[in-house]
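R.M. (postdoc): so does anyone remember the format we settled on? I'll just put the structure tokens first.
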């Protein structure tokens, strides 16, 4: 093929050549194209477009004068249909000219044409049939969107059908096997898009017994069936172009094919050649010809929103008539606008939200609109016909009409000019200059006034004008084929881009690549999450989806619990001598997800409880198992926990405490009564249990039952997998990172160095790199052939603070993102229609670079690439300058330990030590609450010397206490909920009659009293007249530093006062909660509140390091605590509301081991396990007697106190005003030396 071209002026043009042959074989360079050089005569570029595979431009230097020739032999050869030559530079003198010759290969073509009512029926030669695989290959082209290409049937509804549906090829496979699961019985494979473009498309079908490979234009899908049915077990006839006689097994709408086949082969047999020879094997039905002579349509592509095509109207006609077909992905755009020759009447046709809207307007009249069609932005061809004559305005879309009457005045005639797709610049015509952009897509079969428009004449300049059009081809591209949306994301597109809808997928990002969920329960723990159900994604952005598990976060371990459908007791009993079918356990995670969870765990186990009555696990004669369990790989196991596989012993057999010492399991003795064995299965490679089989239930009165617990796994061997890099020249290396279209990298790092490279992987020119570029900058850089791209996250604080920081970077075909910690992520869009594949070939370097420069100093852990965890520790053990593991987690995760809990380092993570906190739980945030009944109390002694006898010298004893427990400051906290007044919330005493008391006055207001000098009156802090005895939860925090006291109530603003009674709390003795009889040295108000005590719920009580409720309810050390009366543990004080809530609190009474009710005996790490029945009865009797004694004593004390102080407590029926007056009277009776503070 030869081509020459000349250009009189110096305007740079593009020369496009379309081969007349069906295919043109040319050659392309093996590697990247050389860069065009600055030639003195001409450089030219060469590019190819190959059946929707995109463009890859290449540049070559041309000749330097008019006589020389430059020749390129390009290998390997490649099939192409278009050549486009782009001159880049030319001689500064003379005319521009170019001559080129393209050499191709011989191509043989045999074609057959179907008219939509014809077909070929081929009867297979049974002797030549391949027993293992059928191979069908062909090429086709058509202008129709639907049609049957081939069909073959079998028995029981079995069939194989290749069908074109809406421009896509669908291969339908029906195995005809009723016993196969639904996914295998009916298979649908879909490939291709926009295949109705009148271009040749290649098809290859490879059909095996249980597998299928389907290829369209080099895009392939593969399916492997798991059943036993044979896809080749079909009849000996196969039809092409349609289904003769409307096939007996076809239950879907069908339409015969209208178009051409080329080079149709079945197992190497040329079927078109057989058809031409009229052999008996081929039956020709209908009008079949052996040439492809369909009339070619000339489409027009509107390349941008500024494109337009201006065509002249039909002069002298009293009507408007326009027809055309269009296809687009855009939901909106201007399709047509014109203005009539006589009168200012405008007609505008737009595409809006996938619908057509035709507007007819005239100044002074209401515009008339017609809306037609829906979903027209689907990339399919849609026909449009609009007409206006007289008072009728109608528009027809795909054969469906919509019309409306109008009352416009003036003559209806054809417009001078019709603008299709847009308007020229600075045009003021109707529909121009508005917010609606121009149309982007393709038009064909355009007619104005019943006269067809030939786009070729437009291209030659003989008709109309245009801008930014591509004539004689439809340049519409399906950007969702192949779909770059991952994990089931739904792809949608416009002219120049695509987007992914990630709703309900569990993933996020531009291509639904990144998982929304944490990788493990251990990761949830170190986010501060408590126990509960969570979705975890063990492989991150990998192919496995998220799985629902229960994360049980305990004080020292995090358990991942995977539930199944058989958690209830399963009874096993034979019926009519037949063994029952075993239950198949189905877990909330798929087998692959279970495998990933167990692979990432340090330990996994599953508890199985066996119940037996006259049934056995094995026979007594030879020990043959009659019961077993099946693991995930369908292997049978006969061992029963605690023992090695193959050893048929239960836990009691290993410990030697079975009911019958002759057997190694309780359920092996076939006893007449129910016995049980609890076994724990802990070999990860065998778990989880999928079936439990118990066969020995066929004998008379023999029964069995079992309960299988959930799969439990602990630890995460990737979350804490880390390495320490000690020199700048050290690094770890791994195999090349494969992330051509989507790549994500995530890890934690900590360092004190100002910079360093975390990860680097190189290609010939492509690369990917993550680095600490500066103390406050992390940079993600890469190149996929479009030039270097950088994304940087900057922090207001340095990253080199020796704390863990989390980095996540992702690069896909649409954008690159980088996020560090909780800082705002940074995103950079990929260039439109640029290179997309990241091609790397070097090793992956972690902690350094190939040049051993700018290496990272510090720790990296939990490194994952596309969801795959890298074992840094294993590689570090064999690499100089790198150590496995990294310590120092509390600096980053210590904040998880709340309420005074202390962070403790572990090799893999942290735990929270709650010994000095009033809370417990994994993060010291589970409040310890107690309900106090009438007359109850808890006394916490600060001294272990409380058992000293009175014979001790009191002065020396006091001196000892003074030396050890003199406080210059303290922090006290408590939460309470009550409706009783007055109440004593907290009382801390000393051997010197100094004290701190927190009380509720008779009107419910809160008072805090400090007395730090026995010779002075206490300082009293009043918190207004608010009633805190309202049945709601209130929190109080007191912080003293010498004479300065800060108080915070219910998280309100902190208030400060200065003490006058002293700066030190001397010889602290005990802390008391509830009822206190005659506290030494206390003022009358504290005495009155102490006698009344406290009835309600207290929680989070703490004074310095002392947590009295925790010491009483959760004993764990040699702490001296005394419990009197009814004190019961409560779940949470905040759970119940309302004035009567304390009485209805869901509580658990303090166990009998806590000591006598009112005996006052101290408890030193008392064991609160339940006593025996007799002891319990005696304890109850003693409890009742002592309660009666306590109540009598309380009544006497209260009566004496009221007589002594004039009984300032109002009667029960008094109003709030009376209570307030009583409180004022009480306060006025206080000694004048007592200082009071009102907030």
């Amino acid at each position: 093929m030869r081509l020459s071209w000349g250009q009189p002026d110096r305007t740079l043009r593009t020369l496009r050549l379309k081969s007349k042959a069906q295919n043109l074989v040319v050659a392309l360079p093996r590697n990247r194209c050389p860069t065009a050089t600055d030639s003195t005569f001409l450089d030219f570029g060469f590019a190819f477009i190959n059946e929707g595979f995109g463009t890859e431009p290449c540049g070559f230097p041309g000749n330097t004068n008019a006589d020389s020739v430059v020749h390129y032999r390009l290998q390997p050869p490649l099939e192409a249909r278009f050549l486009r030559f782009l001159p880049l530079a030319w001689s500064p003198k003379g005319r521009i000219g170019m001559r080129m010759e393209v050499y191709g290969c011989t191509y043989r073509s045999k074609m057959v044409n179907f008219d939509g009512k014809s077909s070929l029926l081929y009867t297979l030669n049974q002797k030549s049939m391949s027993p293992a695989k059928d191979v069908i290959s062909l090429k086709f082209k058509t202008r129709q969107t639907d049609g049957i290409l081939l069909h073959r049937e079998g028995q029981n509804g079995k069939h194989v059908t290749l069908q074109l549906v809406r421009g896509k090829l669908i291969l339908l496979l029906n195995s005809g096997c009723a016993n196969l699961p639904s996914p295998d019985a009916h298979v649908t494979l879909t490939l291709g898009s926009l295949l109705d473009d009148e271009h040749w498309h290649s098809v290859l079908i490879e059909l095996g017994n249980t597998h299928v490979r389907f290829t369209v234009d080099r895009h392939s899908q593969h399916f492997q069936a798991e059943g036993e049915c044979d896809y080749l077990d079909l009849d000996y006839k196969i039809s092409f172009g349609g289904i003769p006689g409307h096939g007996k097994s076809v239950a879907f709408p069908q339409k015969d094919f209208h178009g051409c086949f080329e080079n149709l082969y079945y197992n190497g047999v040329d079927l078109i050649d057989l058809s031409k020879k009229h052999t008996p094997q081929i039956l020709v039905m209908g009008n079949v010809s052996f040439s492809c002579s369909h009339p070619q349509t000339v489409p027009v592509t509107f390349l941008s929103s500024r494109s337009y095509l201006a065509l002249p109207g039909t002069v002298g006609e009293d009507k408007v008539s326009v027809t055309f077909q269009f296809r687009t992905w855009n939901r909106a755009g201007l399709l047509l606008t014109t203005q009539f020759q006589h009168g200012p009447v405008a007609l505008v046709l737009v595409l809006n939200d996938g619908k057509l809207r035709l507007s007819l307007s005239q100044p002074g009249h209401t515009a008339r609109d017609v809306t037609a069609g829906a979903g027209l932005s689907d990339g399919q061809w849609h026909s449009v016909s609009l007409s206006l004559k007289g008072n009728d305005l109608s528009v027809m879309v795909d054969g469906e009409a919509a019309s409306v009457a109008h009352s416009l005045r003036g003559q209806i005639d054809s417009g001078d000019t019709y603008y299709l797709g847009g308007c020229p610049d600075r045009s003021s015509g109707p529909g121009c200059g508005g917010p609606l952009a121009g149309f982007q897509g393709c038009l064909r079969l355009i007619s104005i006034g019943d006269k067809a428009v030939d786009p070729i004449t437009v291209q030659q300049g003989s008709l109309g004008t245009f801008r930014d059009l591509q004539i004689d081809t439809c340049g519409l591209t399906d950007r969702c084929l192949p779909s770059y949306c991952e994990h089931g994301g739904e792809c949608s597109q416009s002219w120049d881009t695509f987007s992914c809808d990630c709703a309900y997928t569990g993933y996020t990002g531009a291509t639904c690549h990144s998982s929304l969920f944490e990788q493990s329960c251990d990761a949830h723990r170190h986010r501060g999450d408590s126990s509960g159900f969570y979705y975890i994604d063990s492989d991150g952005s990998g192919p496995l989806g998220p799985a629902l598990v229960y994360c049980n976060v305990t004080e020292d371990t995090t358990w991942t619990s995977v539930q199944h459908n058989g958690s209830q007791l399963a009874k096993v009993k034979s019926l009519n001598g037949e063994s029952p079918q075993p239950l198949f356990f189905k877990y909330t995670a798929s087998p692959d997800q279970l495998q990933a969870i167990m692979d990432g765990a340090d330990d996994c186990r599953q508890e199985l409880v066996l119940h037996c009555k006259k049934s056995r696990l094995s026979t007594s004669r030879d020990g043959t198992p009659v019961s077993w369990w099946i693991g995930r790989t369908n292997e049978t196991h006969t061992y029963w926990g605690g023992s090695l596989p193959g050893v048929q012993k239960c836990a009691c057999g290993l410990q030697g405490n079975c009911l019958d010492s002759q057997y190694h399991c309780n359920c092996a003795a076939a006893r007449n009564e129910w016995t049980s064995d609890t076994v724990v299965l802990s070999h990860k490679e065998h778990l989880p249990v999928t079936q439990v089989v118990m066969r020995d239930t066929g004998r008379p009165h023999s029964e069995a039952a079992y309960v299988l617990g959930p799969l439990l796994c602990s630890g995460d061997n990737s979350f804490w997998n880390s390495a320490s890099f000690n020199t700048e020249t050290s690094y770890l290396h791994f195999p090349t990172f494969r992330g051509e279209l989507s790549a994500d990298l995530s890890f934690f790092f900590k360092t004190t160095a100002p910079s360093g490279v975390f990860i680097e992987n190189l290609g010939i020119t492509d690369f990917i790199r993550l680095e600490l570029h500066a103390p406050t900058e992390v940079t993600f850089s890469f190149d996929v052939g479009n030039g270097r791209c950088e994304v940087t996250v900057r922090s207001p604080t340095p990253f080199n603070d020796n704390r863990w920081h989390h980095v996540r970077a992702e690069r896909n075909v649409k954008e690159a993102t980088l996020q560090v910690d909780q800082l705002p992520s940074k995103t950079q869009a990929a260039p439109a229609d640029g290179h997309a594949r990241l091609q790397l070939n070097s090793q992956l370097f972690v902690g350094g670079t190939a040049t051993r420069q700018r290496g990272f100093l510090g720790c990296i852990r939990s490194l994952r690439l596309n969801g795959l965890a890298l074992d840094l520790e294993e590689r570090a053990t064999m690499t100089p300058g790198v150590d496995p593991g990294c310590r120092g987690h509390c600096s980053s995760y210590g904040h998880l330990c709340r309420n005074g809990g202390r962070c403790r380092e572990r090799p893999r993570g942290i735990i929270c030590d709650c010994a000095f906190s009033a809370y417990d739980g994994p993060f010291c945030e589970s409040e310890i609450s107690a309900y106090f009944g009438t007359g109850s109390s808890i006394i916490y002694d600060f001294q272990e010397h409380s058992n000293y006898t009175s014979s001790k010298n009191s002065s020396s004893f006091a001196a000892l206490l003074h030396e050890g427990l003199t406080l210059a400051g303290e922090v006290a906290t408590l939460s309470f909920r009550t409706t009783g007044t007055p109440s004593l919330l907290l009382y801390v005493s000393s051997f010197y009659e100094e004290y701190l008391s927190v009380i509720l006055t008779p009107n419910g207001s809160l008072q805090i009293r400090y007395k730090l000098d026995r010779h002075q009156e206490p300082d009293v802090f009043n918190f207004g007249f608010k009633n805190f005895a309202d049945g709601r939860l209130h929190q109080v925090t007191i912080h003293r530093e010498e004479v300065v006291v800060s108080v915070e109530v219910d998280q309100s603003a902190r208030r400060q006062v200065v003490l006058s009674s002293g700066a030190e709390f001397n010889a602290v003795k005990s802390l008391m909660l509830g009822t206190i009889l005659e506290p030494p040295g206390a003022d009358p108000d504290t005495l009155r509140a102490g006698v009344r005590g406290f009835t309600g719920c207290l929680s989070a009580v703490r004074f310095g390091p002392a947590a009295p409720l925790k010491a009483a309810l959760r004993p764990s050390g040699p702490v001296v605590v005394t419990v009197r009366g009814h004190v019961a543990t409560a779940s949470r004080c905040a759970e119940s509301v309302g004035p009567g809530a304390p009485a209805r609190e869901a509580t658990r009474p303090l166990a009998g081991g806590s000591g006598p009710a009112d005996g006052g005996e101290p408890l030193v790490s008392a064991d609160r396990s339940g006593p025996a029945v007799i002891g319990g009865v005696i304890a109850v009797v003693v409890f009742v007697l002592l309660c009666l004694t306590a109540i009598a004593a309380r009544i006497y004390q209260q009566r004496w106190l009221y007589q002594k102080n004039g009984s300032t407590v109002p009667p029960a029926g008094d109003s709030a005003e009376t209570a307030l007056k009583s409180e004022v009277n009480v306060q006025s009776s206080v000694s004048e030396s007592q200082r009071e503070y009102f907030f």
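R.M.: ...and that's the designed sequence above, right after the tokens. Also worth knowing: The two ends are 100 Å apart (CA to CA). The CA atoms of residues 1085 and 1227 lie 9 Å apart.
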